[in-house]
Design goal:
Distance between the termini of chain B: 74 Å
Number of strands of chain A: 5
Structural class of chain A: mainly alpha
Radius of gyration of chain A: 23 Å
Strand order of the largest sheet of chain A: 1-2
Number of helices of chain A: 19
Oligomer: heterodimer
Helix content of chain B: 40-55%
Distance between the termini of chain A: 21 Å
Radius of gyration of chain B: 22 Å
Order of helices and strands of chain B: HHEEHEHEHHEEH
Strand order of the largest sheet of chain B: 4-6-5
Structural class of chain B: mainly alpha
Strand content of chain B: 5-15%
Strand content of chain A: under 5%
Largest sheet of chain B: 3 strands, antiparallel
Number of helices of chain B: 7
Chain lengths: 579, 190
């Protein structure tokens, strides 16, 4: 690994932590309804949304009411995105005259954006009208992210309230997340991205005369280049901040119009983890013990940082076969070297592997390089980060509530060992809490492993595979891991825009989102009803380095034991066959 | 549940207006006013005609132009209406064959140059539209371009030097050369 690589990795992590501290404090004030710096500006907007939506912000509900509101909102959102895609040919803001999206693809995409997965079975610039991108996809980028944050806030209330029925008002948590957090950050990020070259226009494509004419695949002379543009920056800003990841263009954040410069790359990289990191600190503020928040953030960094370093050093080594073909892969001041297949020159190796680690640690899933073309062990890193259950940062809100489920498991396992009643933040963990935590943790592996197993034995599943041998298996495993964990990135060689994959992955995404979210809300409701137990000498402190290590071990053991056999059949065997 | 659905419909409508229309419209209005050139795609004109975008590469195969990264877009390379990478895995024989062919093509166009080829020049970019190559990949091609254009090598080398962009703020990303910009200034030499 070069010094330049290390400097960039350190810079991104440093920026992330520096920005997370004030944002974490700000969000705690937002969710507790305290005055904030932006309150004067955004307070009227918040109240306007309540009035227009017919919401009484003072009315709270129990966990069942909260859950029903959340599910109803997602159902309506799903229907809207589906219909927009099917009817876009008849609707305005379609300058390039794109037709209706195929039904299973429209289903897949609607589920994908509703569940904050943002898996893209389609190519953006060739499939979706500007209207669909804005009114369908961008809206769900906000909505699914805000819903994830709302569910987290409800769980935090469950931990902090005593003998209470109510866990909050879903609409208030949703609107505050969107209005006070996502919207202002997105506006700023979008405009900075445009200053770097990200496009933001309602015009149709531009046409350029090529300097040197070329020929198409069938030999027809090509003298012009149609350059697709559109309102990209506004969508990209929220797709990063909301850990959505679905790109405006097919090539996602590797497309120069999405991510034109190293600076735009650094800002987007940071944005991917910003809110998820800050929410850890928000948690600390809201439970009135900031050390608890830092402990969770530390546990996440303990997994993330080694993953970045491993991926970077492996990809920097390059492809051993190419070395025998007269290719120079050594890094120098004049070239990045390394495995450059599927990577962009302006990013080189470090900015690509850094992004790959961030985007899969978070359930973001946007890519600035093609993970399918990573070396076997380089590609193993993003795959494992996804399979750990998207709790290493994870989705905004959903990552931390997933991590808190692991905390419940960790506290319970530790309690078993010393023969004490397990408790977390003064709340006793009983059989109901454990059932909900177990359900939330088991749903995802079932979706991933069963989905993968079915896909590799049926011909409709095999038909999508691009690369031969174990790498082809990795493509399928990656697809279901990505869908089941609501990540959205891909080993994109897999031809997944087929009825089989659209439906199978759609189901995996639904399981991955709602079979975690609903048990978490049940957990919140049950915890809220409990009394606070006084801390005693037998209470396990949950802010110490020892607990951080224990939590990381639990996450890795659960994820590792579940997925190691599958990983052995894919990237690991490919690596062993490689030399 | 019906009450929840009714509220959901209203809230989706309100949030759609806010985040799906007002937000992109506001960003577009500001972007077009403050950064018009960038917002519309950083288009480059020559003699009043649009000849490309600063940010989007173009296919070059003639010996007198610098070549960019191999592109996987269909149906022709650098199709800016359908970005794509190859997605070929590292162990895929199709990748090894493609790289072998590219190395051979570079050597055939520049007989006598047996130096190892910089990796970025023979591997496909992620977007298929990468506008840049590494400085090493540009310098590798200097002799061929100079010979094809009947220019002194030193002149071409100097031109490449002028087009090397440093890491942003001295640290971010990689040093690079914009191929379209370099070729446009090559044409301007005549």
């Amino acid at each position: 690994m070069t010094a330049w690589s290390l400097a960039q990795i350190a810079l991104a992590l440093g920026m992330l932590l520096l920005a997370a501290v004030p944002l974490g404090r700000y969000m705690a004030r937002v969710y507790e309804g305290q005055p904030t710096v932006l309150g004067r500006l955004l307070g009227p907007l918040e109240r306007l949304v309540y009035r227009a939506g017919g919401i009484d912000p003072t009315r709270e509900s129990d966990w069942k009411g909260y859950t029903l509101a959340m599910l109803a909102f997602h159902l309506v959102g799903f229907a809207a995105v589906y219909l927009l895609q099917r009817l876009q040919g008849l609707l305005p803001l379609n300058p390039d005259g794109l037709g209706a999206v195929e039904p299973t693809s429209a289903f897949d995409t609607a589920v994908s954006f509703m569940t904050n997965t943002n898996w893209q079975g389609y190519g953006g610039e060739t499939t979706m009208s500007h209207l669909t991108q804005m009114l369908g996809l961008t809206v769900q980028n906000f909505a699914s992210a805000a819903a994830g944050m709302a569910i987290l806030v409800a769980l935090i209330r469950g931990l902090t309230r005593r003998t209470s029925h109510e866990i909050g008002n879903f609409w208030v948590d949703l609107v505050r997340s969107a209005v006070y957090v996502l919207l202002p950050l997105s506006i700023v990020l979008a405009l900075v991205l445009v200053s770097q070259g990200t496009v933001q226009t309602f015009r149709g494509h531009a046409t350029a005369t090529l300097l040197e004419a070329t020929r198409g695949a069938d030999g027809t002379p090509i003298a012009e280049q149609r350059i697709a543009v559109g309102p990209a920056a506004s969508q990209i800003a929220i797709k990063q901040l909301g850990t959505n990841g679905g790109g405006f263009f097919n090539a996602n954040a590797s497309h120069p119009f999405e991510n034109p410069t190293p600076l735009s790359n650094l800002l987007q990289t940071t944005a991917i983890l910003l809110i998820a990191a800050a929410l850890c600190l928000t948690f600390g503020h809201m439970v009135r013990d900031r050390r608890q928040g830092w402990a969770l953030l530390a546990a996440m960094l303990v997994v993330l940082v080694p993953a970045i370093l491993v991926a970077t050093s492996i990809e920097q080594r390059g492809n051993p076969v190419l070395a025998t073909l007269g290719v120079d892969q050594a890094p120098t001041n004049l070239q990045p070297g390394g495995n450059m297949e599927g990577k962009e020159q302006r990013f080189g190796i470090a900015s690509s592997t850094l992004w790959a680690s961030f985007t899969t640690a978070a359930s973001n899933g946007s890519v600035n390089s093609m993970h399918d073309s990573f070396t076997p062990l380089g590609g193993l890193v993003p795959l494992v980060l996804i399979q750990l259950g998207e709790v290493i940062f994870g989705g905004v809100g959903s990552g931390l509530y997933g991590m808190l489920v692991f905390v419940v498991i960790a506290v319970f396992a530790a309690g078993l060992m010393v023969g004490r009643t397990p408790e977390y933040l003064g709340k006793k963990i009983g059989p109901f809490e454990m059932k909900m935590a177990a359900l939330a943790i088991l749903a995802m592996p079932v979706a991933v492993l069963v989905g993968t197993a079915v896909a590799v034995v049926v011909s409709a599943g095999q038909a999508g595979i691009l690369n031969p041998g174990p790498h082809g298996f990795s493509e399928v495993l990656y697809a279901f891991s990505s869908a089941g964990n609501n990540n959205g990135s891909a080993f994109a060689g897999l031809g997944a825009n087929t009825p089989f994959y659209n439906l199978a992955l759609g189901v995996a995404m639904l399981i991955g989102r709602f079979l975690v979210a609903v048990p978490v809300l049940a957990l919140a409701g049950s915890l809220a009803g409990k009394k606070l137990a006084a801390a005693s000498a037998g209470t396990l402190p949950t802010h110490t380095p020892m607990f951080v290590g224990w939590l990381v071990a639990v996450v890795i053991i659960v994820g590792g034991l579940t997925f190691f056999p599958a990983l052995a059949l894919g990237p690991i065997v490919e690596h062993l066959m490689f030399r | 549940m019906l009450a929840h659905l009714r509220t959901s419909l209203r809230m989706l409508a309100v949030l759609s207006l806010l985040t799906g229309l007002a937000y992109p419209a506001f960003v577009t209005a500001v972007a077009v006013a403050v950064f018009p050139h960038r917002a519309h795609g950083s288009l480059v004109e020559r003699d009043g005609k649009v000849v490309g975008s600063e940010l989007i590469g173009q296919p070059f195969t003639g010996p007198g132009y610098f070549w960019g990264r191999p592109s996987a877009t269909v149906p022709f390379p650098y199709n800016a209406a359908a970005s794509a990478g190859t997605n070929l895995g590292p162990s895929n024989p199709a990748l090894h064959g493609a790289v072998r062919d590219r190395v051979a093509a570079l050597r055939a166009a520049d007989p006598g140059n047996d130096e190892p080829v910089p990796a970025d020049l023979v591997t496909a970019s992620a977007s298929g539209l990468d506008p840049h190559i590494s400085p090493a990949a540009a310098l590798y091609q200097v002799r061929r371009v100079a010979r094809a254009r009947g220019l002194p090598e030193a002149t071409v080398r100097e031109l490449v030097g002028l087009h090397i962009e440093d890491r942003q703020f001295g640290v971010l990303g990689e040093r690079r050369v914009n191929v379209l910009a370099l070729n446009l200034s090559l044409d301007a030499l005549r």
